[in-house]
Amino acid sequence: MQLDISDDSLNVYEALASSVRLRIIRLLSKEPMSVQELAEALQLSSPIVTKHLNKLQAAELITSERVGHKKVSSLRVDTIAVKFPRQIYPKFKVHKNMIPVGHYTEYHVEPSCGLAGPEGYIGKVDNPKYFMFADRMNAGMIWFNKGFVEYQTPNFVGEREQLEMLDLSMELGSEFPFSNNTWPSDITFSINGHELGTWRSPGDFSDIRGKYTPDWVPDNVNQYGILKILRVTDHGTYLDGQPFTNVCLNDLPIDEDVWTVRFEVKQDAQQSGGCTIFGKGFGNYNQNIELSAYYS
């Protein structure tokens, strides 16, 4: 589960702000338990335990079902990440390029693969030739098991402007038929034909619905990804603010009129779990792929 610091996430923070509910989460992390079993373990009455369970369920942290005459609860998430807003290098000016996920210019993909738009799937699922379907331009989510998609975008940095760093921001996940919250995949990033590095996605998430994912998308398929921010500077590449690789701006042919961005799951990847790219109208961040060129 991914959270931010908006009021939309407040119910989750409130659900966690209780020593009793934290104990319940620890117990459920071992195995699903009934209300009676939790009451005995916590030495509390069943009505009090039920109130705490209702709070956790309203925050979508647990799920409950009837098994015979018992109500059994189990954990719904195994990880919570919190994203804080930040102001990045305000002294630099910026050229921002927003690239819709369906506007790739080159691809080679293997099933499972497909495209989805606001109203439904685009073309036929698991048939790579539909990746060249004209309606792909309307895609808000694409996925593939192996291969790559490649995007091109103009280089707007002027002759009298000094490029200081490049930021690449996108929402990504793995790809599993339907979904699998624990399904690692090695996704390699490249700019202008030069590899920046490989990130291991932890899974293909459907534990809760994506904040912006359309209602037509079934609950048991890809719902959201993880927002990743790559930054290339003159002294290395960083991923989410942490050192990633030694690739610098000077390693990239940045003087070209057109820049190329590639997302790839290689044939020899150690964890070959596919790639899902979420764009505007899907996932948790309602954004397209963003390439920001900071300059002075």
Reconstruct the topology from this structure.
Layout: E1 2-3, H1 10-16, H2 19-28, E2 33-34, H3 35-42, H4 46-58, E3 62-67, E4 70-75, E5 81-82, E6 93-99, E7 106-110, E8 114-116, E9 141-144, E10 146-154, E11 163-173, E12 185-191, E13 194-201, E14 226-233, E15 236-239, E16 242-245, E17 258-265, E18 275-278, E19 289-295
Parallel strand pairs: 1-5
Antiparallel strand pairs: 2-4, 3-4, 6-19, 7-10, 8-9, 9-18, 10-17, 11-14, 11-18, 11-19, 12-13, 12-17, 14-15, 15-16
Helix pairs in contact: 1-4, 3-4
Structure, explained:
- The protein folds into two domains: 74 residues, Orthogonal Bundle (Arc Repressor Mutant, subunit A); 210 residues, Galactose-binding domain-like (Jelly Rolls).
- The strands form four sheets. Strands 6, 8, 9, 11, 14, 15, 16, 18 and 19 form a nine-stranded antiparallel beta sheet that branches.
- The radius of gyration is 22 Å and the shape is globular.
- Helix 3 crosses helix 4.
- With 296 residues, it is mostly beta strands.
- The model has no long low-confidence stretch (mean pLDDT 93).
- A hairpin with a 2-residue loop joins strand 14 and strand 15.
- The chain is built from four helices and 19 strands.
